[in-house]
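Sanity check

After download, print the first record. It should look like this:
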Amino acid sequence: MNERVKFVAAMLQAEETFAELCERFGISRKQGYKWKERYEAGGVGALVDRSRAPHFHPHAVTAEVVQLMLAARKKHPRWGPRKLLVIVKRERSTIVLPAASTVGAILKRQGLIGRPRRVRRSDPYKDRLGPYDAPNGVWCADFKGNFAVAGERCNPLTISDGFSRYLLTCKALRSTVCAPVMRSFEATFREFGLPDAIRTDNGPPFSTLAPGGLSRLAIWWIRLGIRPERIMPGRPDQNGRHERMHRTLKAETARPPASSMRAQQARFDRFQNEYNNERPHEALGQETPASHFRAALRAFPNALPELEYPDHFELCRTYPNGIISWRGTQWYLSGCLQNELVGLEELDDGRWRVFFGPVLLGIIDARRAYERPNKRAFGVLVRADGELGGRRRRRLYRR
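Expected C-alpha coordinates:
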Protein backbone atom coordinates (compact mmCIF):
# COMPACT_ATOMS: atom_id res chain seq x y z
CA MET A 1 0.00 0.00 0.00
CA ASN A 2 2.88 2.36 0.78
CA GLU A 3 4.42 1.74 -2.67
CA ARG A 4 1.13 2.52 -4.35
CA VAL A 5 0.80 5.83 -2.49
CA LYS A 6 4.41 6.73 -3.44
CA PHE A 7 3.65 5.86 -7.06
CA VAL A 8 0.62 8.16 -7.12
CA ALA A 9 2.58 11.00 -5.44
CA ALA A 10 5.39 10.71 -8.00
CA MET A 11 2.83 10.64 -10.82
CA LEU A 12 1.27 13.87 -9.59
CA GLN A 13 4.66 15.63 -9.54
CA ALA A 14 5.09 14.80 -13.25
CA GLU A 15 8.92 15.00 -13.11
CA GLU A 16 9.33 11.98 -15.46
CA THR A 17 7.39 10.23 -18.14
CA PHE A 18 4.75 7.64 -17.18
CA ALA A 19 6.79 4.83 -18.78
CA GLU A 20 9.91 5.84 -16.79
CA LEU A 21 7.83 6.07 -13.60
CA CYS A 22 6.43 2.54 -14.05
CA GLU A 23 9.89 1.20 -14.80
CA ARG A 24 11.31 2.82 -11.63
CA PHE A 25 8.57 1.19 -9.47
CA GLY A 26 8.96 -2.19 -11.22
CA ILE A 27 5.44 -2.47 -12.65
CA SER A 28 4.01 -2.59 -16.13
CA ARG A 29 2.30 0.41 -17.71
CA LYS A 30 -1.00 -1.53 -17.62
CA GLN A 31 -0.63 -1.91 -13.86
CA GLY A 32 0.31 1.73 -13.50
CA TYR A 33 -2.76 2.93 -15.42
CA LYS A 34 -4.91 0.72 -13.18
CA TRP A 35 -3.69 2.46 -10.04
CA LYS A 36 -4.04 5.85 -11.75
CA GLU A 37 -7.69 5.16 -12.67
CA ARG A 38 -8.50 3.89 -9.18
CA TYR A 39 -6.94 6.98 -7.56
CA GLU A 40 -8.81 9.34 -9.86
CA ALA A 41 -12.08 7.50 -9.15
CA GLY A 42 -11.87 7.06 -5.38
CA GLY A 43 -8.76 8.68 -3.97
CA VAL A 44 -6.14 6.93 -1.86
CA GLY A 45 -8.70 4.62 -0.28
CA ALA A 46 -9.35 3.03 -3.66
CA LEU A 47 -5.78 1.68 -3.80
CA VAL A 48 -6.46 -1.18 -1.35
CA ASP A 49 -6.82 -4.76 -2.64
CA ARG A 50 -10.29 -5.70 -3.85
CA SER A 51 -12.04 -9.10 -3.76
CA ARG A 52 -11.20 -11.27 -6.75
CA ALA A 53 -14.44 -13.28 -6.46
CA PRO A 54 -16.48 -13.23 -9.68
CA HIS A 55 -19.69 -11.22 -9.68
CA PHE A 56 -21.53 -14.14 -11.34
CA HIS A 57 -20.81 -17.89 -11.20
CA PRO A 58 -21.94 -19.90 -14.23
CA HIS A 59 -22.38 -23.08 -12.13
CA ALA A 60 -24.36 -21.50 -9.29
CA VAL A 61 -27.34 -23.47 -7.97
CA THR A 62 -30.57 -22.11 -9.36
CA ALA A 63 -33.38 -20.90 -7.16
CA GLU A 64 -35.55 -23.74 -8.50
CA VAL A 65 -33.16 -26.39 -7.25
CA VAL A 66 -32.90 -24.68 -3.87
CA GLN A 67 -36.68 -24.70 -3.50
CA LEU A 68 -36.88 -28.38 -4.50
CA MET A 69 -34.29 -29.28 -1.86
CA LEU A 70 -36.03 -27.27 0.82
CA ALA A 71 -39.38 -28.87 -0.06
CA ALA A 72 -37.86 -32.37 0.13
CA ARG A 73 -36.26 -31.51 3.45
CA LYS A 74 -39.59 -30.24 4.78
CA LYS A 75 -41.21 -33.52 3.77
CA HIS A 76 -38.40 -35.60 5.30
CA PRO A 77 -36.93 -33.38 8.05
CA ARG A 78 -34.46 -36.00 9.27
CA TRP A 79 -32.99 -37.10 5.95
CA GLY A 80 -29.56 -35.93 4.88
CA PRO A 81 -28.36 -34.33 1.61
CA ARG A 82 -27.58 -37.61 -0.17
CA LYS A 83 -31.03 -39.04 0.43
CA LEU A 84 -32.70 -35.78 -0.56
CA LEU A 85 -30.79 -35.81 -3.84
CA VAL A 86 -32.10 -39.29 -4.61
CA ILE A 87 -35.69 -38.26 -3.88
CA VAL A 88 -35.49 -35.09 -6.01
CA LYS A 89 -33.84 -37.03 -8.84
CA ARG A 90 -36.73 -39.50 -8.83
CA GLU A 91 -39.25 -36.69 -9.26
CA ARG A 92 -37.23 -34.47 -11.66
CA SER A 93 -34.94 -36.75 -13.64
CA THR A 94 -33.96 -34.09 -16.19
CA ILE A 95 -32.82 -31.40 -13.76
CA VAL A 96 -29.13 -30.85 -13.05
CA LEU A 97 -28.48 -31.36 -9.33
CA PRO A 98 -25.52 -30.14 -7.27
CA ALA A 99 -23.19 -32.21 -5.11
CA ALA A 100 -24.28 -33.46 -1.70
CA SER A 101 -21.88 -31.01 -0.03
CA THR A 102 -23.59 -28.12 -1.81
CA VAL A 103 -27.01 -29.33 -0.64
CA GLY A 104 -25.63 -29.54 2.88
CA ALA A 105 -24.40 -25.94 2.62
CA ILE A 106 -27.85 -24.83 1.42
CA LEU A 107 -29.58 -26.55 4.32
CA LYS A 108 -27.05 -25.12 6.76
CA ARG A 109 -27.63 -21.55 5.49
CA GLN A 110 -31.35 -22.07 6.00
CA GLY A 111 -30.77 -23.23 9.60
CA LEU A 112 -31.97 -26.78 8.86
CA ILE A 113 -28.75 -28.53 9.90
CA GLY A 114 -27.17 -28.21 13.32
CA ARG A 115 -23.64 -28.90 14.40
CA PRO A 116 -22.54 -32.46 13.62
CA ARG A 117 -22.23 -34.88 16.48
CA ARG A 118 -18.77 -35.93 17.49
CA VAL A 119 -18.34 -39.63 16.78
CA ARG A 120 -15.74 -41.49 18.80
CA ARG A 121 -14.45 -44.66 17.20
CA SER A 122 -12.38 -47.45 18.64
CA ASP A 123 -10.65 -50.50 17.26
CA PRO A 124 -13.15 -53.19 16.18
CA TYR A 125 -13.48 -56.31 18.29
CA LYS A 126 -12.05 -59.13 16.19
CA ASP A 127 -13.09 -62.22 18.14
CA ARG A 128 -16.18 -64.42 17.79
CA LEU A 129 -18.24 -62.09 15.62
CA GLY A 130 -18.99 -63.33 12.12
CA PRO A 131 -19.01 -61.20 8.95
CA TYR A 132 -22.06 -59.74 7.23
CA ASP A 133 -21.28 -61.56 3.98
CA ALA A 134 -24.76 -62.64 2.82
CA PRO A 135 -28.43 -62.19 3.66
CA ASN A 136 -29.45 -64.16 6.77
CA GLY A 137 -25.83 -64.79 7.69
CA VAL A 138 -26.13 -62.60 10.80
CA TRP A 139 -29.32 -61.08 12.17
CA CYS A 140 -29.14 -58.28 14.72
CA ALA A 141 -31.60 -57.95 17.59
CA ASP A 142 -32.05 -55.52 20.45
CA PHE A 143 -34.55 -53.46 22.41
CA LYS A 144 -34.81 -49.77 21.56
CA GLY A 145 -34.90 -48.21 24.98
CA ASN A 146 -37.81 -48.06 27.38
CA PHE A 147 -40.25 -45.17 27.17
CA ALA A 148 -43.73 -44.36 28.43
CA VAL A 149 -46.78 -44.73 26.19
CA ALA A 150 -50.18 -43.88 27.72
CA GLY A 151 -49.08 -44.86 31.22
CA GLU A 152 -47.39 -48.09 30.07
CA ARG A 153 -43.78 -48.94 29.35
CA CYS A 154 -42.96 -49.64 25.73
CA ASN A 155 -39.96 -51.82 24.87
CA PRO A 156 -39.64 -52.02 21.06
CA LEU A 157 -38.06 -55.32 19.99
CA THR A 158 -36.22 -54.88 16.70
CA ILE A 159 -34.71 -57.55 14.45
CA SER A 160 -32.78 -56.73 11.29
CA ASP A 161 -30.65 -58.50 8.71
CA GLY A 162 -27.06 -57.36 9.10
CA PHE A 163 -26.17 -57.71 5.40
CA SER A 164 -29.12 -55.93 3.76
CA ARG A 165 -30.20 -53.75 6.76
CA TYR A 166 -33.72 -55.10 6.18
CA LEU A 167 -35.86 -54.45 9.27
CA LEU A 168 -37.55 -57.79 9.90
CA THR A 169 -39.48 -56.96 13.06
CA CYS A 170 -40.34 -53.88 15.09
CA LYS A 171 -42.69 -54.99 17.84
CA ALA A 172 -43.91 -52.88 20.74
CA LEU A 173 -43.65 -55.07 23.86
CA ARG A 174 -44.57 -54.17 27.41
CA SER A 175 -41.56 -55.96 28.95
CA THR A 176 -38.40 -57.84 28.05
CA VAL A 177 -39.42 -61.19 29.57
CA CYS A 178 -38.67 -64.27 27.51
CA ALA A 179 -42.15 -65.52 26.54
CA PRO A 180 -43.38 -62.57 24.39
CA VAL A 181 -39.91 -62.14 22.91
CA MET A 182 -39.86 -65.79 21.91
CA ARG A 183 -43.28 -65.46 20.27
CA SER A 184 -42.05 -62.46 18.26
CA PHE A 185 -38.98 -64.37 17.12
CA GLU A 186 -41.10 -67.38 16.18
CA ALA A 187 -43.34 -65.22 14.00
CA THR A 188 -40.25 -63.74 12.35
CA PHE A 189 -38.73 -67.19 11.76
CA ARG A 190 -41.93 -68.48 10.21
CA GLU A 191 -42.07 -65.52 7.83
CA PHE A 192 -38.41 -65.16 6.83
CA GLY A 193 -36.76 -68.48 7.76
CA LEU A 194 -33.82 -69.18 10.06
CA PRO A 195 -30.52 -67.23 10.00
CA ASP A 196 -27.08 -68.67 10.71
CA ALA A 197 -26.44 -66.37 13.71
CA ILE A 198 -28.14 -63.68 15.79
CA ARG A 199 -26.07 -60.87 17.30
CA THR A 200 -27.25 -59.18 20.50
CA ASP A 201 -25.93 -57.38 23.55
CA ASN A 202 -25.52 -59.00 26.97
CA GLY A 203 -28.84 -57.95 28.48
CA PRO A 204 -31.93 -60.05 29.19
CA PRO A 205 -33.50 -62.06 27.69
CA PHE A 206 -30.59 -62.62 25.29
CA SER A 207 -28.04 -63.50 27.94
CA THR A 208 -27.79 -64.39 31.62
CA LEU A 209 -25.03 -65.04 34.17
CA ALA A 210 -25.38 -68.78 33.57
CA PRO A 211 -22.44 -70.78 32.13
CA GLY A 212 -21.79 -69.73 28.54
CA GLY A 213 -24.12 -66.76 29.08
CA LEU A 214 -27.01 -68.98 28.07
CA SER A 215 -30.60 -67.90 28.47
CA ARG A 216 -33.76 -69.82 27.61
CA LEU A 217 -33.99 -67.79 24.42
CA ALA A 218 -30.39 -68.58 23.44
CA ILE A 219 -30.95 -72.27 24.20
CA TRP A 220 -33.96 -72.25 21.89
CA TRP A 221 -31.87 -70.63 19.14
CA ILE A 222 -29.17 -73.27 19.50
CA ARG A 223 -31.77 -76.04 19.24
CA LEU A 224 -32.91 -74.39 15.97
CA GLY A 225 -29.35 -74.39 14.61
CA ILE A 226 -28.77 -70.66 15.17
CA ARG A 227 -25.48 -69.47 16.66
CA PRO A 228 -25.91 -66.77 19.36
CA GLU A 229 -23.40 -63.93 19.09
CA ARG A 230 -22.94 -61.39 21.88
CA ILE A 231 -20.97 -58.20 21.67
CA MET A 232 -18.50 -57.22 24.38
CA PRO A 233 -19.95 -55.28 27.33
CA GLY A 234 -19.89 -51.55 26.73
CA ARG A 235 -19.22 -51.96 23.00
CA PRO A 236 -22.44 -51.09 21.12
CA ASP A 237 -20.29 -50.25 18.09
CA GLN A 238 -19.90 -53.99 17.51
CA ASN A 239 -23.60 -53.96 16.62
CA GLY A 240 -23.33 -50.53 15.03
CA ARG A 241 -25.59 -51.14 12.02
CA HIS A 242 -28.50 -52.01 14.25
CA GLU A 243 -27.78 -49.17 16.68
CA ARG A 244 -27.74 -46.66 13.81
CA MET A 245 -31.16 -47.89 12.73
CA HIS A 246 -32.37 -47.39 16.31
CA ARG A 247 -31.37 -43.75 16.17
CA THR A 248 -33.55 -43.19 13.11
CA LEU A 249 -36.38 -45.26 14.60
CA LYS A 250 -36.45 -43.19 17.76
CA ALA A 251 -36.42 -39.89 15.89
CA GLU A 252 -39.19 -40.95 13.50
CA THR A 253 -41.58 -42.77 15.86
CA ALA A 254 -40.97 -41.90 19.52
CA ARG A 255 -40.50 -38.13 19.67
CA PRO A 256 -43.11 -37.67 21.00
CA PRO A 257 -44.64 -41.11 21.73
CA ALA A 258 -48.08 -42.05 20.45
CA SER A 259 -51.27 -41.85 22.49
CA SER A 260 -51.61 -45.65 22.92
CA MET A 261 -49.70 -48.89 22.40
CA ARG A 262 -51.82 -49.66 19.34
CA ALA A 263 -51.06 -46.26 17.82
CA GLN A 264 -47.38 -46.70 18.67
CA GLN A 265 -47.33 -50.07 16.90
CA ALA A 266 -48.98 -48.43 13.87
CA ARG A 267 -46.11 -45.92 13.81
CA PHE A 268 -43.60 -48.76 13.94
CA ASP A 269 -45.36 -50.53 11.06
CA ARG A 270 -45.29 -47.40 8.87
CA PHE A 271 -41.64 -46.83 9.70
CA GLN A 272 -40.77 -50.45 8.91
CA ASN A 273 -42.43 -50.25 5.49
CA GLU A 274 -40.77 -46.92 4.62
CA TYR A 275 -37.37 -48.04 5.94
CA ASN A 276 -37.41 -51.27 3.92
CA ASN A 277 -39.07 -50.20 0.66
CA GLU A 278 -38.74 -46.42 0.18
CA ARG A 279 -35.89 -44.90 2.18
CA PRO A 280 -32.54 -44.91 0.29
CA HIS A 281 -29.71 -46.41 2.33
CA GLU A 282 -26.31 -44.86 1.89
CA ALA A 283 -24.40 -48.06 2.71
CA LEU A 284 -26.33 -49.86 -0.06
CA GLY A 285 -25.49 -47.34 -2.76
CA GLN A 286 -28.71 -45.40 -2.07
CA GLU A 287 -30.78 -48.50 -2.78
CA THR A 288 -33.45 -49.86 -0.46
CA PRO A 289 -32.88 -52.76 1.99
CA ALA A 290 -35.71 -54.71 0.32
CA SER A 291 -33.72 -54.84 -2.93
CA HIS A 292 -30.85 -56.65 -1.15
CA PHE A 293 -32.79 -59.04 1.10
CA ARG A 294 -34.15 -62.50 0.43
CA ALA A 295 -35.77 -65.03 2.73
CA ALA A 296 -33.62 -67.74 4.30
CA LEU A 297 -33.56 -71.24 2.84
CA ARG A 298 -33.97 -72.94 6.23
CA ALA A 299 -37.59 -72.98 7.32
CA PHE A 300 -38.87 -73.00 10.88
CA PRO A 301 -39.34 -76.68 11.90
CA ASN A 302 -42.51 -78.16 13.33
CA ALA A 303 -40.52 -79.74 16.18
CA LEU A 304 -37.19 -78.82 17.77
CA PRO A 305 -34.44 -81.09 16.47
CA GLU A 306 -32.15 -82.84 18.93
CA LEU A 307 -28.59 -81.57 19.17
CA GLU A 308 -25.84 -83.63 17.58
CA TYR A 309 -22.36 -84.13 19.03
CA PRO A 310 -19.17 -85.78 17.76
CA ASP A 311 -18.81 -89.52 18.27
CA HIS A 312 -16.11 -89.22 20.95
CA PHE A 313 -18.41 -87.15 23.22
CA GLU A 314 -20.25 -88.68 26.14
CA LEU A 315 -23.89 -87.57 26.23
CA CYS A 316 -25.96 -86.76 29.27
CA ARG A 317 -29.42 -85.24 29.72
CA THR A 318 -30.11 -82.66 32.41
CA TYR A 319 -32.86 -82.93 34.99
CA PRO A 320 -35.54 -80.19 35.23
CA ASN A 321 -33.42 -78.51 37.94
CA GLY A 322 -30.38 -78.18 35.66
CA ILE A 323 -28.39 -81.05 37.24
CA ILE A 324 -26.80 -83.98 35.42
CA SER A 325 -25.97 -87.32 36.98
CA TRP A 326 -22.70 -88.51 35.51
CA ARG A 327 -20.46 -91.32 36.74
CA GLY A 328 -22.10 -91.50 40.14
CA THR A 329 -21.93 -87.76 40.81
CA GLN A 330 -24.50 -85.01 40.46
CA TRP A 331 -23.25 -81.87 38.72
CA TYR A 332 -25.19 -78.63 38.65
CA LEU A 333 -24.95 -76.85 35.28
CA SER A 334 -27.68 -74.23 34.93
CA GLY A 335 -31.33 -73.73 35.73
CA CYS A 336 -31.87 -72.71 32.09
CA LEU A 337 -30.94 -76.19 30.93
CA GLN A 338 -34.06 -78.25 31.60
CA ASN A 339 -34.17 -81.72 30.04
CA GLU A 340 -31.52 -80.72 27.53
CA LEU A 341 -28.84 -82.96 26.00
CA VAL A 342 -25.26 -81.92 26.78
CA GLY A 343 -21.99 -83.38 25.55
CA LEU A 344 -18.86 -84.08 27.59
CA GLU A 345 -15.38 -84.19 26.03
CA GLU A 346 -12.40 -85.48 27.99
CA LEU A 347 -9.78 -82.79 28.48
CA ASP A 348 -7.22 -84.74 30.53
CA ASP A 349 -7.18 -87.20 33.42
CA GLY A 350 -10.34 -86.60 35.46
CA ARG A 351 -11.33 -83.32 33.75
CA TRP A 352 -14.08 -83.00 31.15
CA ARG A 353 -15.33 -80.08 29.09
CA VAL A 354 -19.11 -79.66 28.99
CA PHE A 355 -20.82 -78.38 25.84
CA PHE A 356 -24.35 -77.43 24.97
CA GLY A 357 -24.25 -77.58 21.21
CA PRO A 358 -21.29 -75.39 20.14
CA VAL A 359 -21.23 -73.44 23.45
CA LEU A 360 -18.64 -74.40 26.04
CA LEU A 361 -20.30 -74.29 29.45
CA GLY A 362 -17.28 -75.11 31.60
CA ILE A 363 -15.21 -77.94 33.03
CA ILE A 364 -16.13 -80.62 35.53
CA ASP A 365 -13.34 -82.17 37.58
CA ALA A 366 -14.07 -85.64 38.89
CA ARG A 367 -11.45 -85.04 41.59
CA ARG A 368 -13.62 -82.24 43.03
CA ALA A 369 -16.63 -84.42 43.79
CA TYR A 370 -17.54 -84.41 47.49
CA GLU A 371 -19.39 -87.00 49.55
CA ARG A 372 -22.21 -85.86 51.86
CA PRO A 373 -23.53 -87.99 54.73
CA ASN A 374 -26.43 -90.18 53.56
CA LYS A 375 -26.49 -88.40 50.22
CA ARG A 376 -24.96 -88.87 46.82
CA ALA A 377 -21.74 -87.21 45.75
CA PHE A 378 -22.03 -83.84 44.07
CA GLY A 379 -19.72 -81.57 42.11
CA VAL A 380 -19.66 -78.05 40.76
CA LEU A 381 -19.13 -76.88 37.19
CA VAL A 382 -16.09 -74.63 36.81
CA ARG A 383 -15.98 -72.08 34.01
CA ALA A 384 -13.31 -72.37 31.37
CA ASP A 385 -11.47 -69.42 33.00
CA GLY A 386 -11.28 -71.30 36.29
CA GLU A 387 -14.03 -69.40 38.13
CA LEU A 388 -17.18 -70.80 39.70
CA GLY A 389 -20.25 -69.45 37.96
CA GLY A 390 -23.59 -68.53 39.49
CA ARG A 391 -24.76 -68.05 43.08
CA ARG A 392 -26.54 -71.38 43.26
CA ARG A 393 -23.37 -73.24 42.33
CA ARG A 394 -21.48 -71.47 45.07
CA ARG A 395 -24.14 -72.49 47.58
CA LEU A 396 -23.88 -76.11 46.43
CA TYR A 397 -20.13 -75.93 46.77
CA ARG A 398 -20.29 -74.72 50.37
CA ARG A 399 -22.80 -77.30 51.59
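If your output differs, re-run the checksum step. Summary of this record's structure: The longest strand covers residues 152-161.
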